[in-house]
Amino acid sequence: MNFLEERIVKDGVVKEGNVLKVDRFLNHQMDIDLFNEMGKEFKRRFEGVEINKIMTIEASGIGIACIVAQHFGVPVIFAKKAQSINLDGEMYIAEVESFTHKCKNQVIMSKKLISPKDKVLIIDDFLANGCALQGLISIIQDAGATVAGIGIAIEKGFQPGGKIIRNLGYKLESLAIVKSMDCEKGTIEFAS
Ligand code: 5GP
C-alpha cells in the first residue's frame, strides 16, 4: 500500500451508496503534510509533461490543488459552481452532474483566466462517474487550451469514470484506486 492507501484504511469510512468519507484528512479537515506528499508524487508522475496551470473544481479540490501547485510552480484556477457578483465578463459554462449531491450543477470559469496557450493539469479529490472531469475538460476545450494531464487523489475503480476518461486518451494518474469497498464490514480493497 502507498501512503494515501494507508491513510484511507486508517481514517476513511465506507458509507452506504458507494461513498467513501475522507473528511478526517482530505476534504473537511485537511492534512497538509499528506497533500505535500501527494504533490511530490504527482510531480514525479507528470515529470517531463509541460504544465503551466492547474485547474480544479469548487470546493473540495481547491485545497489539494493549491498544495500540489507549489510542487509545479504554477497558478491554480478553479471552476465555480454558482454564479456570483464576483464573476464578471465572459464565461465558459459546462453542465456537471454531482455524484454526492445527486443534482446538476453548472461549472463556470471566467474566459480571461484560460487561453489557447495553457497546458492544464486537472487535479481533483475523487473520480467516480467522471462527470466533474468531463465538465472541466469541456471548459479547457472551449478555451482552445490543452489538457496536459489529470491527477486524482482517490479513484473509485468500480465506477466508470476512470475507464471513460482513459478511453478518451488522457493521461490520468490516480494515487489510490479503490477496487471494492464494503460498508457493512468496513473493508476497502485497492487495485494494485
Ligand atoms: P464524478 O463526477 O466523477 O462522478 O464525482 C466526482 C466528484 O464527486 C468529486 O469531486 C467528489 O467531490 C465527489 N465524490 C464522488 N465520490 C465520492 C466519494 O465516495 N466520497 C466523497 N467524499 N466524495 C465523492
Short description:
By secondary structure, this protein is α/β, with parallel strands linked by helices.
Spell out the blueprint of helices and strands:
Elements: H1 3-11, E1 13-15, E2 19-21, H2 32-45, E3 53-57, H3 61-72, E4 76-79, E5 91-97, E6 104-110, E7 119-127, H4 131-142, E8 146-156, H5 161-167, E9 172-182, E10 187-190
Parallel strand pairs: 3-4, 3-7, 7-8, 8-9
Antiparallel strand pairs: 1-2, 5-6, 9-10
Helix pairs in contact: 2-3
Please, could you describe this protein's structure?
There is one protein chain. This protein is an alpha/beta fold and 192 residues long. The protein has a single domain (3-186), classed as Rossmann fold (3-Layer(aba) Sandwich). The chain contains five helices and ten strands; from the N terminus they run H-E-E-H-E-H-E-E-E-E-H-E-H-E-E. It has helices spanning 3-11, 32-45, 61-72, 131-142, 161-167; strands at residues 13-15, 19-21, 53-57, 76-79, 91-97, 104-110, 119-127, 146-156, 172-182, 187-190. Strands 4-3-7-8-9-10 form a six-stranded mixed β-sheet, with helices on both faces. The protein has a two-stranded antiparallel sheet with strand order 1-2. A two-stranded antiparallel sheet has the order 5-6. Helix 2 (32-45) packs across helix 3. The radius of gyration is 16 Å and the shape is globular. The relative contact order is 0.17. The model has no long low-confidence stretch (mean pLDDT 95). The structure holds guanosine-5'-monophosphate. Guanosine-5'-monophosphate binds next to strand 2, strand 7 and helix 4.
